[in-house]
Amino acid sequence: MRSRIMKIAFLLLLSSLLWCITLGNHNWRYGDQEHATKSDCIIIEGAVVQGSTSSPAFAERILQGTELYPAGLATKLLFTEGVGEGQDNSEGRVGRSAAIRLAVAAVDILIEERSQTTRQNLSEARSVMQKHGLNSALIVRVPLHVKRAMMIAGGLDIDAVSSPTSTTRYRSFQNQFSLPVRELSTSFTTASSPATNEP
């Protein structure tokens, strides 16, 4: 009896491992693909800021978005996210300032400063889009996060395509390991739960 239980437990563990590998591979493959098409706006989700300066990861997203803008893929940039813990400036506002320095017209930049999570980013972005009559979006994210962002956007009825940044900014072995695990976990949660704002 005990050996049978051990065998079942082993098979369950093996099945879970195979599922994680399959899902992880799917996320990586999706994040390696460029899906950019002409849209009404480019959503650039916030990332850590240092005072009034964007972090390297955020700077990369901003640069990508400001390169897609003059290419004619959208006429508006939409920066998201509010003030992070220990910060004085919202990530949306820091992104806006950086884009202006990169020669994007201020009138073409929209921001929201309320969100704190990816789901909230996109929910608040949808509200801004509706207010300004924007119907479609091009979402800029790091490759590993693209699939989850697209799943959330779909759940919020946002007509969106994605444009992954060219590199990722993992700074340590711990990040390289923990980020994929977290994305696998949140991808599963997103797929199995209704599209409502996170607390």
Descriptive notes:
- The chain is of the alpha/beta class.
- It has one domain: HUPs (Rossmann fold, 3-Layer(aba) Sandwich), CATH 3.40.50.620.
- The protein contains 6 helices and 7 strands, in the order H-E-E-E-H-E-H-E-H-E-H-E-H.
- The chain has helices at residues 2-31, 56-68, 91-101, 118-131, 143-155, 173-192, and strands at residues 41-44, 49-50, 53-54, 76-79, 109-111, 136-141, 159-164.
- The strands form 2 sheets. Strands 5-4-1-6-7 form a 5-stranded parallel β-sheet, sandwiched between helices. The protein has a two-stranded antiparallel sheet with strand order 2-3.
- Helix 1 (2-31) crosses helix 5 (143-155) and helix 5 runs parallel beside helix 6 (173-192).
- The chain is elongated and about 70 Å long.
- Mean pLDDT is 78; it is low at 168-199.
Number of helical stretches of at least 4 residues: 6
Total E-strand runs: 7
Instruction: Assign the CATH architecture.
Output: 3-Layer(aba) Sandwich
Helix and strand succession? HEEEHEHEHEHEH
Main sheet properties: 5 strands, parallel
Arithmetic mean of pLDDT: 78
Task: Decide which structural class fits the backbone.
Answer: alpha/beta
In the CATH hierarchy, the third-tier topology is known as Rossmann fold
Low-confidence stretches: 168-199
| Global morphology | elongated
Strand percent estimate: 5-15%
Radius of gyration, CA atoms, in whole angstroms = 19 Å
CATH superfamily: HUPs
The portion of residues assigned to helices is: 40-55%
